[in-house]
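Duplicate of #3305? Posting structure anyway:
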């Protein structure tokens, strides 16, 4: 697990040097500057996230590396500690930043975020509503995808989580992202009536917001729900079905397995990434159009105790 360190926001002067291309991408070129985060990796692949500052040093059991030896130089160098241990020094990319940044709520990990972006079809200029901003991990990926011409409406119930998310996003992009609008409050109570192309729910009880998501989405828009447990997943999917304003929901989990390949030693790695959550997708139907009722017999109570709408035969 990467070592966590509190990020410092870059000064305007540093930004003019470090933010080369393109605007609000989070990508930096040119010499390393004070206030930047770098990933320092040892020969065993252990990665440390460090914020550069004049006069400070990165300490290891094999000696130290002065930050001043890195500031002003290029990334992609091999820095040798005072104990003769070599370390590679790189700027962190989005995946590295996401898993090492300060957090209040558990983040949506990159393997799930990449699936969400592809299968929710997030595009440049898209209008996206996100409920449950958490620490801002998925917000970073969405903002990178929609660019400056899109809009991300983020709702977060907890003000402390919202503050962490805002700081993480400012640090990564080098300032306030023009496409981001953050609201502290419950989605059902604070929804401002905006019409969007995509809705993403990451919360404890997403089934409570299915109707609000339907009101917010344009016909044909995608709803994506991220939950951690099977009970959350089951209740959410049944609520979407009972609403009948959606196509049949689909649920997946994403597992990643690394491989070790060195000479004749080719085998699965030990650092596979298993279950972190379920990703549910459903697409909004037009107003006044209802999904066909599934003809198979569901489990007893599958539509909820309060559901009084049409049911398949025998239910």
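Output from current build:
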């Amino acid at each position: 697990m990467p070592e966590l360190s509190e990020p410092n926001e870059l000064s305007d002067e540093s930004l003019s040097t470090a933010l080369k291309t393109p605007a609000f991408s989070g990508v930096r070129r040119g010499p390393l500057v004070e206030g930047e985060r770098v990933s320092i990796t040892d020969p065993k692949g252990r990665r440390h996230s460090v914020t550069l500052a004049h006069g400070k040093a990165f300490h290891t059991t094999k000696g130290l590396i002065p930050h001043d030896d890195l500031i002003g130089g290029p990334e992609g160098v091999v820095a040798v500690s005072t104990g003769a241990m070599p370390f590679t020094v790189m700027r962190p990319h989005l995946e590295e930043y996401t898993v090492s940044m300060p957090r209040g709520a558990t983040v949506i990990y990159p393997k799930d975020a990449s699936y969400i972006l592809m299968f929710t079809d997030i595009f440049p200029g898209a209008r996206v509503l996100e409920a449950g901003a958490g620490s801002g991990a998925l917000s970073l990926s969405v903002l990178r995808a929609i660019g400056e011409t899109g809009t991300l409406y983020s709702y977060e119930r907890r003000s402390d989580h919202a503050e962490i998310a805002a700081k993480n996003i400012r640090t990564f992009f080098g300032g306030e992202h023009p496409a981001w609008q953050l609201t502290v409050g419950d989605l059902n109570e604070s929804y401002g009536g905006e019409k969007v192309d995509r809705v993403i729910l990451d919360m404890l009880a997403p089934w409570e917001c299915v109707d609000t998501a339907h009101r917010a989405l344009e016909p044909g828009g995608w709803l994506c729900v991220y939950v951690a447990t099977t009970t959350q997943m089951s209740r959410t999917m049944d609520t979407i079905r009972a609403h009948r304003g959606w196509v049949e929901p689909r649920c997946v989990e994403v597992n990643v397995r690394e491989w070790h390949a060195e000479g004749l030693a080719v085998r699965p790695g030990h650092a596979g990434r298993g279950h972190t959550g379920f990703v549910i997708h459903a697409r909004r139907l037009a107003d006044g159009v209802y999904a066909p009722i599934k003809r198979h017999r569901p489990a007893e109570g599958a539509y909820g105790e309060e559901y009084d709408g049409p049911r398949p035969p025998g239910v």
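Confirmed duplicate; merging threads. DSSP finds eight helices and 15 strands in the chain. Residues 1-8, 14-20 have pLDDT under 50 and may be disordered.
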